[in-house]
């Protein structure tokens, strides 16, 4: 696996497909290819998520949103995988899409002035699916545990084909998880999960309406 590497923000911006202001990893202080990564995210009061908050709110209203915390963790995991596949000599013309988080436990909060430390470990690779696990810390406080985050690796050409307006629609295994052609954010995934009926429910509705 070799020794641990460090990545500054310019290198992170070159790795992640996210544009400003959605790059939520400031620095990588440890990267062991194919094994683990530690990513850093500094929270500031100038974050876009605080822009619309009115004056006079209590400090509890400035807790960093859980959706962004998970997104920042996921981006850290993406750096681990995207850098690791180079050493594996795999096809680089593939994209990593976030699909789901299982057994997420929030045990604390973070606020402007805090520094998130994401510790991510590569748990398993099953076919084109990547499984990671890890924790998020603020100093010596563990504020989140993610027992399993799952991402799917797909050929870029397939994702682009089905993501464009002329595409025929997502394949069955991508339909409910891939709306972004690069890396679906946790905020988008949560919104789709909350607002969209499941494929099973949709099929039941279609069947009942046809009878």
Integer count of domains = 1
Largest sheet geometry? 7 strands, antiparallel
CA gyration radius, whole angstroms:
18 Å
Unreliable runs: 167-208
Entry summary:
This protein has helices at residues 9-15, 66-87, 156-163, 186-195, 199-210; strands at 5-7, 27-32, 36-42, 94-106, 115-126, 129-138, 141-155.
Give a verbal description of the structure:
By secondary structure, this protein is α+β, with helices and mostly antiparallel strands. It has one domain (about 5-155): Hotdog Thioesterase (Thiol Ester Dehydrase, Chain A), CATH 3.10.129.10. About 30% of the residues lie in helices and about 30% in strands. The chain has a seven-stranded antiparallel beta sheet. Strand 2 and strand 3 (about 35-40) form a beta hairpin. The longest helix is centred in the middle third of the chain and has 22 residues, at about 65-85. The N and C termini lie far apart (about 60 Å).
């Amino acid at each position: 696996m070799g020794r641990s590497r460090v990545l500054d923000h310019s290198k992170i911006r070159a790795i992640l497909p996210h544009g400003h202001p959605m790059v939520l990893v400031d620095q990588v202080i440890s990267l062991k290819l194919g094994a683990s990564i530690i990513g850093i995210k500094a929270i500031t009061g100038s974050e876009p998520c605080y822009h619309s908050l009115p004056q006079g709110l209590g400090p509890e209203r400035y807790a960093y949103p859980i959706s962004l915390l998970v997104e920042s963790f996921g981006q850290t995991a993406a750096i681990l995988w995207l850098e690791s596949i180079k050493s594996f000599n795999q096809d680089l013309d593939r994209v990593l899409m976030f699909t789901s988080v299982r057994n997420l436990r929030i045990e604390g909060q973070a606020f402007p002035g805090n520094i998130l430390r994401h510790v991510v470990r590569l748990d398993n690779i099953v076919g084109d699916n990547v499984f990671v696990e890890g924790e998020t810390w603020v100093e010596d406080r563990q504020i989140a545990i993610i027992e399993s985050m799952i991402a799917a690796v797909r050929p870029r050409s397939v994702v682009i084909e089905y993501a464009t307006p002329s595409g025929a629609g997502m394949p069955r295994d991508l339909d409910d998880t891939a709306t972004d052609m690069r890396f679906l954010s946790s905020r988008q995934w949560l919104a789709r999960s909350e607002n969209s009926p499941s494929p099973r429910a949709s099929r039941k509705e279609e069947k009942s309406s046809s009878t």
